[in-house]
Amino acid sequence: MYDAGERMSVVRPRKSLGQHFLVDQNVARKIVDALDAPEGSPVIEIGPGMGALTGMLASRYPRFTALDVDLRAVEHLRSEMPDVDVRHEDVLTVNWAALDADGAGLYVIGNLPYNITSPILFSLFASAAHVRCALLMMQLEVAQRIVAQPRTKAYGILSVASQLFSKPVLLFQVSRNVFRPKPAVTSAVVRLDFSARSPEIPYEGMLSRTVRAAFNQRRKTLRNSLAALARECGRSVPDKWAGCRAEELRPEEFIEMARYLTR
């Protein structure tokens, strides 16, 4: 079995890329097992780094592709695993539709760099039609925001978007001690089931503007936080929401609000 811990010296983690390489094979196996994709499914790994997950994934899923922005890691993995499809690509600009060429829907897995976790998530939401499931490791605090419920402090923009486009579940926490270098925080693995997404409206456009305007002034009532956007649309905030704050609305109510503003 390829040991990322033994070979980590080949590619030194770069702080600028937010790299923390997983070096515990037991944890790696637990993560791969949690993906549980049907045989023959197209599986995409984000940021394989030193390949802690890559070898196991490639052996289980013939339709496997790994994407990494770090050319050093790509070249090293190509050398160590010449039969694996390892591509030098930036996940923030990758064409998810092209990867899902046959329309089967992708299974995405990865240990996300903390500094770009949210942009990666929103890129997946924007291409939700091409993703069936994502199993992602991230900072515990971000994972908790993803699954947060209304009327809680953690509930915000990421909670609304995640719960509109998927059914998120926080599976388990991961100790900082299984990474090199050790991050300052605990991590967690989250599964996002995109087959449960709400198909009524895309997150782009009015829905995104409504959610962001509401939470950017979350201490204000929606009558005030959405006032400028409502005026721009020639509307006023409906009475049933006017006295509420953003954290009181369920994700589905933001769709209803966005529809009302654009009607």
Q: How would you characterize the overall build of this protein?
A:
The chain is an alpha/beta fold. Helices cover 38% and strands 18% of the residues. The protein contains 13 helices and 9 strands. It has helices at 4-7, 25-35, 54-60, 71-80, 96-99, 117-126, 140-147, 157-165, 206-216, 222-225, 227-232, 239-242, 251-262, and strands spanning 21-22, 43-46, 64-68, 85-88, 106-111, 131-139, 167-174, 179-180, 187-193. The strands form 2 sheets. The protein has a 7-stranded mixed sheet with strand order 4-3-2-5-6-9-7, with helices on both faces. A two-stranded antiparallel ribbon has the order 1-8. α6 (117-126) packs parallel to α8 (157-165) and α7 (140-147) packs across α8 (157-165). The termini are far apart.
What are its keywords?
263 residues; alpha/beta; 7-stranded mixed sheet; two-stranded antiparallel ribbon; 9 strands
Number of DSSP-assigned strands: 9
Measured by DSSP, the beta-strand proportion falls in 15-25%
The assigned structural class equals alpha/beta
Measured on Cα atoms, how large is the radius of gyration?
20 Å
Q: Distance between the terminal alpha carbons, to the nearest Å?
A: 58 Å
**Strand order in the largest sheet:** 4-3-2-5-6-9-7
Question: Which residues form runs of ≥5 with pLDDT under 50?
Answer: 4-9
Mean pLDDT, nearest integer?
91
Number of helices: 13
Order of helices and strands: HEHEHEHEHEHEHHEEEHHHHH
Give the biggest sheet.
7 strands, mixed
Which percent range fits the helix content? Answer: 25-40%
**Global shape:** elongated
